[in-house]
Specification:
The chain has about 130 residues and is mainly α. The protein has one domain. About 85% of the residues lie in helices and about 0% in strands. The chain contains 4 helices and no strands. Helix 2 packs parallel to helix 4 and helix 3 runs antiparallel to helix 4. About 15% of the residues are buried.
């Protein structure tokens, strides 16, 4: 896996951690562990799915590429639904703020993954002449 991807993912996680700290400073959230666990969950999911996406990019088959990327997006959505379902079952306090925060994390990490994918594909296209359309 590309070290740039990992470093950018960790920087994104650090920025969200700072936003967590600011959120907890200005609001009195009773269940802060869910916020930290959601951030850690998305960081680990980003690492796993990022490795899968980079593996799909290196494959020469278009169908394997498509299946690798789309299945990664589907896996992210499925695991995100599982996490929020666990929260709604286990947590005594069903906070709308946490659900909004969680959906924000889903959107943020999905956009990050797509941006990294497009950036990687753009550089691959520029370096490989056989990949150009005729």
């Amino acid at each position: 896996m590309d070290i740039k991807f990992i470093s950018r993912l960790l920087i994104l996680g650090l920025l969200v951690a700072v936003l967590n700290i600011l959120l907890f400073y200005f609001t009195n959230e009773p269940e802060q562990i869910w916020y930290w666990s959601a951030l850690l969950y998305y960081l680990l999911l980003g690492l796993i799915l990022g490795k899968r996406s980079h593996k799909a990019i290196k494959n020469n088959s278009n169908s394997a590429f498509f299946m690798g990327i789309m299945s990664g997006t589907g896996i992210r959505m499925l695991f995100s639904i599982i996490f929020i379902a666990i929260y709604l079952i286990v947590s005594d306090i069903k906070a709308n703020l946490f659900v909004g925060y969680y959906l924000f994390l889903y959107l943020l990490f999905t956009i990050f993954e797509i941006y990294q994918l497009v950036h990687k594909l753009r550089t691959e296209k520029n370096t490989n002449s056989y990949n150009a359309t005729i």
